[in-house]
Specification:
This protein is mostly beta strands. The chain contains 6 helices and 38 strands. The strands form 9 sheets. An 8-stranded mixed β-sheet has the order 23-24-25-26-30-29-28-27, with no helix packed on it. Helix 4 packs across helix 5.
Length: 624
């Protein structure tokens, strides 16, 4: 079960466009349908599906307000929308409102929505070109009126968009679109409109679902021996009730997003998915037909296709345990089970590490332990034998640790074993508290930022030697901290311009040779633009971060955000007074920890409540 909470359904009424203010943050969450829903019924008929069964729209009786929160929580409630054909005699403004309502219907091909268009425009219109997401309801306003045509405009405040590749991108600003109407068979129809869809935030969450397709991380040319390729998620948004499994498989074969493409590869180059349905059978096996022939003569390519498919499909349906890849004629080429696909997952470790407040001693806390940890072997577990260390990071295999000396000026490495020694790496800062917390990638490389205002830099340490890493696109900002993913090709950066602290994610591109490895961080993009004071970030799944920050007029609290910058309103975690650090794992089964100014380590329980598990403790962190 994945940690993210937006996987189980939006729980939002798709008819919110009839409710003033619906779709804005904090609005429409209870699924209310007010008295203004009469117009909405002209365009869509909602059918609310509860776990207990189906509740259809009544055909008699007085209208009544229904609070869906009184009947089911967000995980148990979804709204299904069936579009209705255009009525006769509608004026352009009303017709446009009903058209916008019809586009959110759960119908493949937008057949009914196209009935609102002229015949020629219905053939030309490309609804999948983009999706603009507005913070509130689209405002429909009259424009110019000619002898034979009418103009109507749509206004709103944009918050995000999906591009033609279904990739999410946060955005902000005013949105305007113009629609032209002409008479066809005596009725007004849309004769010209922009490609794509326009939805409010509430309807977007009800209609679309975030899923991840998976590609292989590019090899590091500076390493003499290649490691087993690991899978990297590439999130996209699909319509949740229009055969999302098949659509995910086709999107996987179409290739990665433009952002991720430079650092990943795919076994599907030149190969498309032909299956009409990828639904699994009762045994959890999904068979997928692809355009490639002679699969049996290319077993490794076929196997990698199956691995990519299994992880992509299982991201939506946990019951899929096996994928079979077949050629166009139905001949099976290969199959992969979930256990075999796990070999392509990044390395993860479940134990949590934290430090004793009094002396900086490093302790390990296993997932099964309810309170208190055990000192690690080696010098970090026996602080009386060496100077106090702060800001400790354990390598992902648990065999090595890095620590910044008290004062924040020097970086050390040491083994976590009896007899190990504390060794300087040669990384030093000229200013107090100059070095950030170190972080390890899945290759075994160590990363750290020097926050010296006169010479800020990011360094990668390999084999005890530091190498400077260029960061492109900073625009005058400096790196205050970083957390690199286990796949080693994505990194979350804490950035400041001197006034605000934000978080962005970048790609790591590697080059060079074994004697002179090179790396550059590029393609920075924001993942939590609504936060202006970010103090901590941690990977919380392979495609998700937990970010501790504050909105412009809010209080500091942790939020779950996707690496594409998308987030759900129900992914805000409860905060702790004085929270300073948050620690999560790329293993979604691992619990989330945090510490606070009261020198306690807290664990987040399944009920969303925090419970203290260690006292006189600070700086919880998973390996990496």
């Amino acid at each position: 079960m994945r940690r993210r909470t937006d996987r189980g359904g939006a729980g939002q009424a798709a008819a919110d466009r009839a409710v003033p203010g619906a779709g804005t943050p904090g609005a429409g969450r209870t699924g209310r349908a007010g008295p203004a829903c009469g117009r909405m019924l002209a365009a869509v008929v909602p059918l609310v599906l509860l776990l207990a069964g189906c509740a259809a729209m009544p055909d008699s009786g007085d209208a009544a307000e229904v609070n869906a929160a009184e009947h089911a929580d967000d995980q148990n409630l979804q709204v299904r929308v069936f579009p209705v054909h255009p009525q006769k005699g509608l004026e352009p403004q009303e017709l446009l409102r009903n058209f916008l309502d019809a586009t959110i219907g759960d119908e493949a091909g937008y057949t009914t929505a196209k009935e609102y268009l002229t015949t020629a425009e219905a053939r030309r219109w490309r609804p999948e070109a983009r999706v603009v997401v507005l913070t509130g309801n689209p405002e429909v306003q009259p424009g110019t009126a000619g002898a034979r045509t009418r103009q109507v405009t749509v206004h709103g405040s944009a918050m995000a968009e999906l591009d033609a590749n279904k990739t999410f991108r946060p955005m902000a600003g005013d949105f305007h679109a113009s629609f032209t109407f002409a008479r066809q068979n005596g009725e007004w129809r849309i004769s010209r409109l922009p490609d794509g869809l326009i939805l409010n935030e509430t309807n977007f969450r009800n209609v679309y679902e975030r899923v991840s397709r998976y590609y292989f991380a590019a090899a590091d040319p500076s390493r003499p021996s290649a490691r087993q390729p690991v899978l990297v998620p590439d999130p996209i948004y699909l319509r949740r009730r229009i055969d999302p499994l098949t659509e995910a498989a086709r999107a996987l074969a179409a290739g990665p997003s433009r952002w991720l493409a430079p650092v990943v590869s795919s076994a599907f180059d030149g190969v498309s998915v032909l299956s009409q349905s990828t639904a699994p059978d009762d045994g959890g096996t999904a068979e997928v037909k692809v355009s490639a022939r002679d699969l049996q003569s290319r077993p490794e390519t076929c196997r990698r296709m199956a691995v990519q498919l299994l992880r992509t499909l299982a991201d939506q349906a946990a019951g899929i345990r096996r994928v079979v890849v077949a050629d166009p004629g139905g001949t099976r080429g290969c199959e992969v089970t979930a256990g075999q696909a796990d070999a392509y997952s990044p390395e993860r470790a479940d134990d949590l590490y934290y430090q004793d407040v009094a002396n900086g001693r490093l302790l390990r806390l296993s997932r099964d332990e309810e309170s208190g940890g055990t000192p690690v072997p080696g010098p970090l577990g026996a602080p009386q034998q060496q100077p106090r260390m702060d800001r400790v990071a354990v390598r992902r295999d648990g065999g090595l640790a890095a620590a910044v000396g008290q004062g924040g000026r020097e970086l050390y490495e040491t083994g976590l074993a009896d007899g190990a020694k504390l060794l300087p790496t040669g990384v030093t800062s000229k200013v107090p508290d100059g070095l950030s917390e170190p972080t390890w990638d899945g290759y075994g490389d160590l990363w750290i930022a020097d926050r010296d205002p006169a010479a800020p830099q990011v360094l990668m340490v390999r084999g005890g030697r530091p190498y400077r890493v260029a960061v492109r696109g900073l625009g005058g900002r400096t790196v205050q901290g970083l957390r690199i993913s286990s796949d080693g090709i994505r990194v979350a950066l804490l950035l400041t311009d001197g006034h605000t602290r934000t978080v962005e994610i970048g790609l790591v591109r590697r080059s060079g040779g074994a004697e002179a490895p090179q790396a550059v961080i590029t393609a920075l993009r924001p993942v939590a633009p609504q936060l202006v004071d970010v103090t901590a970030v941690s990977w919380s799944d392979t495609d998700e971060l937990v970010v501790l920050g504050r909105e412009a007029e809010g209080v500091k609290h942790p939020q779950l955000v996707g690496v594409d910058g998308s987030h759900s309103e129900d992914t805000t975690l409860q905060g702790i007074d004085g929270m300073t650090t948050v620690a999560a794992s790329e293993d979604p089964q691992a619990p989330v920890y945090a510490d606070s100014k009261d020198h306690k380590i807290y664990r987040l329980g399944p009920n969303g409540q925090w419970r203290a598990v260690a006292r006189n403790a600070m700086a919880p962190a998973y390996p990496g």
